[in-house]
TrEMBL record:
GO terms for molecular function: DNA binding; DNA-(apurinic or apyrimidinic site) endonuclease activity; phosphoric diester hydrolase activity; zinc ion binding. It comes from the Bacteria. GO terms for biological process: base-excision repair. Pfam families: AP_endonuc_2. Residues 22-265 form the Xylose isomerase-like TIM barrel domain. This is TIM barrel protein. Gene3D superfamilies: Divalent-metal-dependent TIM barrel enzymes (3.20.20.150).
């Protein structure tokens, strides 16, 4: 089963807050929500418990997006703060009942991809160790990123997941397309991406996959901005067909500025596929 939801609470929520967002998502017929903690995460344990209860009551699955201010291959103090943010995201996410959280691993800067990758692996081991200590059961997912200056190509996120137990990929197909300036934009390529994941990480990776989809604009430096699905050249319908044909299960998060309209469009289009 593939569940669809928005990144952040639906725009049409009558009131702010994740609990109301969960109710509104269910009213709309969505069955997932990604908590967009991209500007930081501050929440009491009581609030987290209320979110967990609301999600259970409304049969909504949850994921979280960690703050953007994370760089596992930056300067030492930056890495240290990043590790603390990631462990806190994982702890709170697990307390909310989220099954997965994703984040952008960092920027290559002047380093070679290998050098950056080694630091990221070290960071990922520290994050999973920290969460284990807290008994926080949640997938740690490095996201496929939208710019070639950002660590997180398809090959990298697969390799990191293969190397560190508890780490998995978050596959943002729109980022993959934008990162490589308009490549990876047809059914064959989407299916090949999924097959590559299965080849290295096993069928279980496709039975529980964290996916991001949005309309997107790109330039020579990759991702420029997200845009509504109706406006984009990204072939999201072919992507849905590949997800269906390869029988992928998990969570599809719409990161479109059209929020719930596009999450519902993805869900409706997917459900019509035979
Ligand atoms: Zn992201």
């Amino acid at each position: 089963m593939l569940r669809f939801g928005t990144s952040g609470i639906p725009r049409s929520s009558a009131r702010p807050g994740t609990v109301h967002g969960i109710r509104r998502a269910r009213e709309l017929g969505l069955d997932h929500l990604e908590m967009a903690w991209v500007n930081g995460v501050k929440m009491s344990d009581e609030s987290a418990d209320a979110i967990r209860e609301a999600a259970r009551e409304h049969d909504l699955t949850l994921t979280a997006h960690a703050p953007y201010y994370v760089n596992l291959c930056g300067a030492e103090d930056v890495v240290e703060r990043s590790l603390a943010r990631l462990v806190e995201t994982g702890r709170l996410g697990a307390r909310c009942g989220a099954q997965s959280f994703c984040f952008h691993a960092g920027f290559y800067g002047q380093q070679s991809h290998e050098e950056a990758g080694d630091k990221i692996l070290e960071g990922l081991r520290a994050v999973t160790k920290g969460l284990k200590k807290l008994k926080a059961g949640i997938d740690v997912r490095t996201e496929l990123t939208g710019k070639p200056t950002q660590a997180g190509s398809l090959e990298e996120v697969i390799a990191w997941a293969a190397a560190v137990p508890g780490v998995h990929p978050c596959i943002d197909f729109s980022h993959r397309y934008a990162r490589d300036a308009g490549q990876h934009n047809d059914y064959e390529d989407f299916a090949a991406t999924l097959t590559a994941i299965e080849h290295t990480l096993g069928r279980a990776a496709l039975d529980r996959l964290h996916v991001h989809i949005s309309g997107i604009q790109y330039g020579p430096k990759g991702e420029k901005r997200h845009e509504p699905l109706v406006e984009t050249a990204f072939r999201w319908k072919e992507l849905l067909r590949a997800l269906k044909d390869l029988n992928v299960s998990g969570w599809v998060v719409s990161e479109s500025p059209a929020m719930e309209d596009d999450a519902l469009l993805l869900q409706k289009t997917y459900r019509r596929l035979k």
